[in-house]
Amino acid sequence: MRIKAFAAAAAGAMLFSSVAMADTTIHILHLQTDPAIIQLWSQIGHDYEAANPGVKIDWQFLENEALKAKIPTLLQSDDRPNLFHSWGGGVMRDQIKSGFIGDITADSAALEKELSPGAASAFVVDGKVIGAPFDVSEVSFFYNKALFAKAGVKADDIKTWDDFLGAIKKLKAAGITPIVVGAADKWPMHFYWSYLVMRIGGGDILSDARAGKDGGFKGPAFVEAGKRLKELADLQPFQEGYLGTKWDPSAGLWGDGKGAIQLMGNWFLGNQAVQAADKKGQPLDNIGIFSFPSVPGGKGKLTDTLGGLDGFLVSKGAPKETASFLTFFSQAKYQRVAAEKNLYIPAALDTGDSIGNPVLKEIADKIAHSTKHQLFFDQDLGSSVGGVVNDVSVAIAAGQMSPEDGAAAVQKAWDEK
Fold first, then answer.
1. pLDDT of 22
2. Considering only the top CATH level, what class is 138-306+373-416?
3. Backbone torsion region of residue 329, taken as left when φ is above 0, otherwise alpha when ψ lies between -120 and 50, otherwise beta
4. Comparing 2-136+308-368 with 138-306+373-416, is the CATH topology the same?
5. Where exactly are the structural domains of the chain?
6. pLDDT category, 353, cuts 50, 70, 90?
7. For residues 306-323, average pLDDT
């Protein structure tokens, strides 16, 4: 085990070994694949370096799943990143318990002035500022307008679960793959189970389950969500080989027009283009969104949303310049560029009016008027329980686990947490 740990730490250290020596280097681990985002962030880094001689900003990329897998080991190494991508929630709290998260409270006053208070609060724990958000997100159904028209489906008519299943049947009858999903990475499928839990159990269902109310995670809302997911899967709506398809390729398939729907966060807009064969994907005027439908008898509202925040956490021992860079990075002037270029919905103050993409603007408006904005289940519940949620979601859809056993597995994971 010690040999494996050493090898993993050494592999992590290699991420940063190629950086030229500077008086101070801030190593940042991110997961962005959109060239436009990378270009903007690189420019911000160069601007900061120019204004702060002797400081170097080192951006390092790790693919989504690789980052999740490697960050625990990297944080324990002597070459841990100074800033690294975070979705907040339970996973973040687990990382705090590990003792490897830093505290920039003393230098955070200027940073807090740049950010939306609600977004910034997600990176304040026990009164300590431990990082900063850069965007907000919501999970919606993205659809291909041309394929919907071909099948005679109107997105505005999809309000209930039965409406949604009816649309799936029409798409299949028209010879169109209804849904593309990257089930190999599991978390894309958990969006279905999570939204169903919310629509059935209401906006407070997760906090109620934590408190053990109404059967906890084994309660009727969680079991019913599994049954509805299996009801959808029985229609065989997903692309061939969906269980072996990872998230990035699934976005490319949708961008190539090989499926009508994908349930995903707003980062999907850029990724479907980057991952498409022509690197352009579906044009903006062919992309629409609609909300996850209501479920008969459910307590949830159509305006209850699932989503989250993306940001950067500060690791223990990070250079004192780290807080300064986060403030510089979060400036409205830079975040307006992100909005104007339709890269993401910034968490910075006074930037929403800069969003030019009508789809992204619609999502931002939905978030602003959300009656309950629930953090992704797999992040909110922490890595151990969240991993089980992801596993269960795929297993139920694939017919490998019953809805009852799935709910029981989540409860067991919670009890053992």
1. 62
2. alpha beta
3. alpha
4. yes
5. 2-136+308-368, 138-306+373-416
6. confident
7. 95
Place 352 in a pLDDT band, splitting at 50, 70 and 90. confident
Model pLDDT, residue 15: 52
Query: Which stretches within 281-402 are classed as H helix?
Result: 321-329, 332-340, 358-368, 377-380, 383-397
Residue 347 pLDDT more than 70?
Answer: yes
pTM: 0.83
Interatomic CA distance for residues 235 and 251, integer angstroms: 21
**Amino acid (one-letter) located at 370:** S
Specify whether the CB–CB gap between 16 and 80 falls below 8 A: no
Angle, to 10 degrees, between the axis of helix 220-233 and the axis of helix 161-173? 10
What amino acid occupies position 40?
L
- Using left for φ > 0, alpha for ψ between -120 and 50, and beta otherwise, residue 183 falls in alpha
Q: Are 102 and 322 a contacting pair, CB within 8 Å?
A: yes
Work out whether strand 83-86 and strand 24-30 pair parallel, antiparallel, or are unpaired: parallel
Tokens of 203: 């906006």
Could you tell me how many helices (H) and strands (E) the chain has, helices first?
19, 11
Would the pLDDT of 123 be above 50?
yes
pLDDT, average across residues 3-16: 43
Tell me the C-alpha to C-alpha distance, in Å, between residue 367 and each of 82, 108, 182, 275, 315: 30, 26, 24, 26, 30
Question: Is 2-136+308-368 in CATH node 3.40.190.10?
Answer: yes
